[in-house]
Amino acid sequence: MQKLLENQVALITGASSGIGFGVATSLAEAGASVVINYYSQPEPAEALAAEIIRAGGAAIAVKADVSDPQQVDALFEACRTRFGTVDIVVANSGLQKDASFVEMTLRDWNAVLNVNLTGQFLTAQAAVREFLRRGARPVSKALGKIICMSSVHQVIPWAGHINYAASKGGVQMMMQTLAQEVAPQRIRVNSIAPGAIKTPINKDAWESPEALQRLLKLIPYGRVGEPDDIGKAAVWLASDESDYVTGTTLFVDGGMTLYPGFEDNG
Ligand code: BGC
Fold it and tell me: I need a labelling partner for 124 at 20 to 30 A (CA). Which of 98, 185, 187, 188 fits?
């Protein structure tokens, strides 16, 4: 049986750990050749590429800082050199630098906005340019697919994380505006909004039993998510199974956005 993403090339930014690592793994399992972008951790990115190749797939790991336009261009050049083009781009790189509002430094505000929002802008822009440059391919109904990694915090305000919440709120409107602009070219743009997924970014929230118990109160479905939960959603959004879906945010959050505090009459 043909795999859903066979003969397609996927680029995943920030894929050396966490959700990006999980998404790269799932896209490769669905048959895509993958470009695993990393910024500071070559070892896990190279190890994942080697693992995918061992399993019969195709992969490379490429270093780039997504907040730097020249490095983003070089990243797409690496996709072209190795695989000819790219069909699926997951703008995933993201970080947190938490502080109370009065203590938030401009440096940390900028650092988070530069990667989480500007980085996705630069990645999506390079993706659209590449899709338009190479034209249609018989591998998919769409000219290309972009998936932005958002968060439940594109709608849930988050005290102590104002830079992060603002960046994800920005991702929502950027994604929708871009989706509107490029739909006539048959480019689909969507977001995934993960809730609490077990990754290094939120280790403090699930590592100790007490923290885990607090966290689970926010998740009606009763478990913390796994990177694989996001990976499966990404495979669907990247495939022709979702060909009529564009400009939407798929919340993969175990119900975190269902206002669980109101379940008992508010
Ligand atoms: C954040 C995590 C957090 C989750 C739910 C994510 O976007 O990166 O740290 O656990 O949202 O609050």
Answer: 98
Q: What is the DSSP string of 164-190?
A: HHHHHHHHHHHHHHHHHHHGGGTEEEE
Q: Is residue 206 part of a domain?
A: no
Q: Is residue 211 part of a domain?
A: no
Q: Could you tell me the mean pLDDT of each successive run of 10 residues in the chain, 266 residues long?
A: 95 98 98 98 98 98 98 98 98 98 98 98 99 98 99 98 98 99 99 98 96 97 98 98 98 98 86
In a domain? residue 2 = no
Output the CA torsion sign for 218, 222, 227, 233. negative
> 221: CA distance to ligand 1 center in Å?
16
The pLDDT of residue 1: 79
Instruction: Please confirm, yes or no, whether 164 is among the known catalytic residues.
Output: yes
153 lines ligand 1 (CB under 6 A): yes
The answer to whether the CB of 71 is under 6 A from ligand 1 is no
> Which CATH number goes with the domain that contains 164?
3.40.50.720
**Ligand 1 centroid to 149 CA: how many Å?**
12
For the stretch 47-56, what's the b/e string if a residue is b when 16 or more beta carbons lie within 10 angstroms of its beta carbon?
ebbeebeeee
Range of the domain at 175: 9-199+225-262
At residue 266, the pLDDT reads: 74
Start-end of H helices in 69-105: 69-83
- Say whether pTM exceeds 0.90: yes
The verdict on residue 217 lying in a domain is no
Binding site membership of 152 for ligand 1 (Cβ less than 6 Å): yes
